[in-house]
Write a structure and sequence with these properties.
single chain; about 800 residues; alpha+beta; Jelly Rolls; Alpha-Beta Plaits; 4 domains; five-stranded antiparallel β-sheet; 18 helices; about 25% helix
Length: about 800
């Protein structure tokens, strides 16, 4: 039943107009930090390790090292994982330069217990003289104040060593494979040479030449035309004998040596459906507010009334039938979403351009590099705002989270150009979990992208569950909840109708087809909002996902839930609910406060849903510190409720009281001290959590999503505070960067008074109903204004 126009209650925008000026961060507090060991205790542990490390460095042949430095790894105790504890004084004293880190685990130690926790191994370069200086420093404890300050930081370290070849070499082939394939294509990733102003600088030519010579001396070949540099790392494809890999892994500046993946295999296709769909009533898209790019196998027949798209062949190789069928079906789902046989295709929401990138003109093992080059250069040249990727390397993310070129380059491109990559999660969810082959495949582990898995039923049909083949999380740090959500991608019980060029259908199943359905829904959403960017789209995909039963246990399977086929109905509110969109930006170190649009008074419990989404600069040299920006939310639900701390000498717990009440007056008169700011409601990890716990709860994640309920007695002029902290090379960063973000807030009156929406409109006049942008086409200038 259609809602009468007079009763339409559109989503409200301009939430950023509810910003509260003059709010200051409370004074920092907290007792002394527990130190698991003293520097003298650490000396007993580390001095033998330092002596071995110095001897190992001295024994390195010149062909296995950089000319003027050695790469060293130092494992941090988990107690010192936070960027504020970075051992900068120690590294400065010995002339060391941090150039990266690795993921690891260690013992987190408190006064009462110890437990295994996430940590990292710092990677730094140090000159030979610096190694000698470190050895002397650890032996003597330092001769002056500066040296003693540096010496005190060795308590933060648990291990220190030259990297071993077995830490560098990954997934060597089994002996029987070695005989069958004496030469393999490998991907070598080389550490940066140094860092300037916190930015990693790629390996210099002299050291790279030593690496190439080493490979050649072992009978291998470096594919020099495909050497690529990303975020200070150097990615080098090479062919070498499997038996030579261990020797190559001795090269000191080498971070990782692993087999080169190929492009994922295509899903299989079934028979065509008999009834065809007819073309849309017009080829003109609903809006030109943004453009959508599809990189795949091309479209059979190219442009047609059913495929009113732009097409480009980025490869000159003859098209392959299976690739064309895949690309045609993916592009059809981007244009129209889910279609049924006999239906007329709807008008496309946005202009779509299909780029054929397969087959590549290169051997299979280098196909991934060639395809990625085409994607990056095309996006930089043509400026598409939404990109569908239903293809990628056949490589699952793993717990060591070593940097991947696809993920790193696309995350950087997403940050630089504000482009949203919608990525298929992969079809290996039914593979061996013990080996991690069931995990999402790169680049679905992007921190700034939107990974889509597959479920077995389209909304609103129930029940639904993850499709068996859909790859699972968790992802890498910066976006551990992967895939972000799931969409119908077909299953044995109901296959996906894959559109063919003639309007018929093939039958298939895969995340390749779930992703473009989500891309279509977000393209349509773009036409329905007055202001859109990549963070807005990611916030909507998260906020309105349908959570399954037992959603916490299923998060690694379905992320935040099943994504909508369309947002059209979700943009209209019921009388007892209101959705408000905030779009703003924040400078590092700022605290920004916003009113929560809760009416006054509140007479029943208020259900609240918050979703914060932003893009972050990334650092591929730091897998555990991959995202450089953290936006943290703090909710103060009642502006008069403060915490009162007992006077010195009185052993009593804090008391919560209304600052204007007689009770508060009595407490103040008795020497109790009121908190500077109103009390907070916990969102995520508990206060005073360890850094590892904060990370597990999403401290450095680019998506935050919370649902909770507030009682009427808990609410009075509530405000939400957002702060931005940054890190670089694992340490705190004080440079003034700016991060755009989108915040989506939904409030629901559980008492069903029928007046919440109207009351919010009356009390918060700065909020405006969203004016639909799809009523008319827009010029390119207007498009830029809408998207950004």
């Amino acid at each position: 039943m259609t809602t009468p126009q007079s009763a339409v209650r559109p989503l409200l925008v301009n939430g950023e107009g509810l910003r509260i000026e003059g709010v200051e961060a409370p004074n920092a507090s907290g007792g002394p930090k527990f130190e698991p060991r003293t520097a003298d205790d650490a000396r007993e542990l580390l001095l033998p390790q330092v002596n071995v490390m110095v001897a190992s460095a001295q024994a390195l042949p010149s062909q296995l090292r950089a000319p003027d430095r050695v790469y060293v790894e130092a494992k941090l105790l988990p107690n010192y994982l936070a960027a504020s504890y970075f051992p900068g004084a120690l590294l400065a004293q010995i002339g060391a330069t941090p150039v990266g880190s690795r993921a690891d685990t260690g013992l987190y130690v408190t006064a009462s217990k110890q437990q295994e926790a996430q940590t990292r191994r710092l990677v730094f370069t140090v000159p030979d003289a610096g190694l000698a200086a470190l050895q002397t420093l650890v032996q003597t404890g330092g001769a002056n104040r500066t040296e003693r300050q540096a010496f005190s930081e060795i308590r933060k370290l648990d291990e220190i060593a030259i990297p071993r070849p077995d830490q560098v070499l990954r997934t060597p082939p089994a002996p029987e494979d070695t005989l069958a394939h004496p030469s393999l294509v490998w991907e070598a990733v080389l550490h940066p040479a140094t860092a300037r102003s916190g930015e990693a600088v790629a390996l210099e030519q002299e050291t790279l030449a030593r690496w190439i010579s080493l490979v050649q001396s072992r009978g291998g070949q470096v594919h020099e035309g495909f050497i690529r540099r990303v975020g200070g790392l150097t990615f080098v494809p090479l062919t070498a004998g499997a038996t030579e890999a261990a020797e190559l892994a001795r090269f000191n500046p080498l971070r990782v040596l692993r087999p080169m993946p190929g492009i994922r295999p295509r899903p299989r296709f079934g028979l065509r459906a008999a009834r065809r769909v007819s073309p849309p009533p017009t080829a003109q898209p609903m809006s030109t507010a943004a453009t959508v790019a599809v990189f795949d196998g091309g479209v059979e027949g190219g442009t047609s009334p059913l495929f009113p798209i732009g097409t480009s062949d980025l490869t000159l190789e003859p098209a392959v039938a299976e690739d064309l069928s895949h690309g045609t079906g993916v592009t059809g789902a981007v244009l129209y979403g889910l279609l049924e046989p006999g239906q007329q295709a709807p008008r496309p929401p946005l202009p779509v351009h299909s780029y054929r990138v397969t087959p590549s003109p290169n051997p299979h093992d280098l196909e991934g590099y060639w395809v990625l080059d085409r994607i990056v250069e095309t996006i930089r040249q043509n400026g598409h705002q939404i990109v569908n990727l239903s293809m990628g390397p056949d490589r699952a993310v793993d717990d060591d989270m070593e940097p991947d070129r696809w993920t790193s380059e696309l995350d950087q491109l997403a940050w630089d150009n504000d482009v949203l990559f919608v990525v298929a999660a992969g079809n290996d969810g039914d593979q061996d979990a013990a080996t991690g082959l069931h995990r999402v495949q790169v680049p679905a582990d992007m921190a700034n992208g939107l990974a889509v898995g597959a479920c077995d039923a389209a909304a609103p049909h129930r029940p639904w569950a993850r499709a068996d083949y859909s790859s699972m999380g968790p992802g890498r740090h910066g976006n551990r909840i992967q895939p972000l959500g799931v969409q119908f991608g077909g299953a044995e019980s109901q296959m996906f109708n894959l559109l063919a060029a003639d309007g018929g259908f093939l039958e298939a199943a895969g995340t390749s087809f779930a992703a473009p359905v989500t891309t279509h829904a977000l393209a349509d959403l773009t036409t329905r909002l007055p202001r859109v960017n990549s963070s807005v789209l990611r916030s909507f995909a998260t906020h309105f996902a349908e959570r399954p039963h037992r959603h916490v246990k299923l998060r690694d399977e379905v992320g935040y839930g099943r994504q909508p086929l369309t947002y059209e109905d979700l943009l209209d509110c019921d009388p007892d609910e209101v959705h408000v969109l905030y779009v703003d930006e924040i400078v590092r170190g700022d605290l920004m406060a916003y009113q929560l649009p809760a009416p006054s008074p509140v007479t029943a419990n208020l259900a609240v849903t918050l979703t914060l989404a932003y893009a972050s600069p990334i650092d591929p040299t730091q897998p555990t510190e991959y995202t450089s920006a953290s936006l943290e939310m703090l909710l103060r639900p009642h502006h008069r409720m403060h915490s009162f701390r007992a006077p010195t000498g009185l052993d009593a717990k804090p008391i919560i009281a209304d600052i204007g009440s007689p009770q508060a007056g009595e407490l103040l008169a008795a020497g109790w001290e009121a908190s500077q700011e109103p009390i907070t409601k916990q969102l995520g990890a508990k206060p005073k959590s360890s850094e590892a716990q904060l990370r597990d709860s999403g401290k450095w994640e680019t998506i935050r999503h919370h649902r909770f309920t507030l009682k009427p007695t808990e609410i009075a002029a509530p405000r939400l505070e957002i702060t931005y902290v940054a890190r670089r090379a694992g340490a705190l960063d004080n440079s003034p960067t700016t991060v755009p973000f989108a915040l989506l807030i939904s409030l629901s009156d559980t008492g069903k008074s029928g007046t919440l929406y109207d009351t919010v409109r009356q009390q918060f006049t700065t909020l405006r109903p969203a004016q639909r942008s799809r009523a008319r086409l827009r010029s390119s200038t207007a498009s830029d204004q809408i998207w950004h």
